[in-house]
Structures are given as C-alpha cells and as structure tokens.
Amino acid sequence: YRLYQHFFPYPDIIPKDKYVLISGCDTGFGHTLAIELDKQGFNVLAGVYTSNNIITLQNKLSPKATVFQLDITKQEDIDSAYELIRKKTNTLHALVNNAGVGIPGYIDWITLESMRKTMDVNFFGHVAMTKTFLPLLISKR
Predict the structure, then answer these.
(1) What pLDDT is recorded for position 32?
(2) Looking at the whole model, is its pTM more than 0.85?
(3) 3-state secondary structure string across the chain
(4) Rounded mean pLDDT, 61-79
(5) What is the CATH number of domain 15-100+109-138?
(6) How many CB atoms lie within 10 A of CB 80?
C-alpha cells in the first residue's frame, strides 16, 4: 500500500470555489459528508428530504452552504434545485447521489408497491439527478 501511495499519490484538491451537490443530507453519510466538506472549505449544496431538517443542517454549516428541500423522485424538485444551483455556479465539482431508502425483509414479505418506491428512489431518482446535473459536471472538464 505504501508503495502504491508513493507512485500514485492522492491529488491535492483545493476547495476554493468548488461546489459539491449532495442528496440525502437529512441523516447519516450525507449529513456527515455535508458537514465535513463544509469544514474543508467546499461550497456545499445539501438536499434534504424533509423541510424540518433544513434548519437543523443549516445551523451546523457555514453561511456559504446552501440547504434546500429535495425529493429526488419528483422531477420538479430536481428542476428547482437545478435553477437554484445555476444562480450560484455554472460548474459542479461533484455530485453525491446519496439519497436512498431500504425496506428490510424477505422478498415474499415486501409488496411490489414498496419495491417500486424503493427503485424510484434508489435507481430512477439517481438517474434523474445525474441526467439533470451532468452539464454542470461536464463543464468543469
């Protein structure tokens, strides 16, 4: 591993003027990542599912971070987020498709309706986010 690090060092990423969009920042990984990237100096764009979590997360982030409601299963929410972000920047450094749901249980316990909702969030929602924000991600290249 040390040899690998010697020949392939991590690139130094300077966070100044770099915008990172993260979905699913209500709790868990997305929440923690938003806080950490904000501390490192990135411009964090954090999407939360429930409006109650907007203030909670805003209180933990610097004033340059933006927290907004985002349901990735609704194209109108994604489009609103796109418009909000385009007012701030023409370029995204990264998109973190973190939003997700899980339904525990065996396949014969879970209804087809529940499986469809899971796929709407965990697959189609991420595809919609990627397709919408791809122009901003490509523009940085």
Answers:
(1) 98
(2) yes
(3) CHHHHHHCCCCCCCCCCCEEEECCCCCHHHHHHHHHHHHHCCEEEEEECCCHHHHHHHCCCCCCCEEEECCCCCHHHHHHHHHHHHHHCCCCCEEECCCCCCCCCCCCCCCHHHHHHHHHHHHHHHHHHHHHHHHHHHCCC
(4) 98
(5) 3.40.50.720
(6) 14
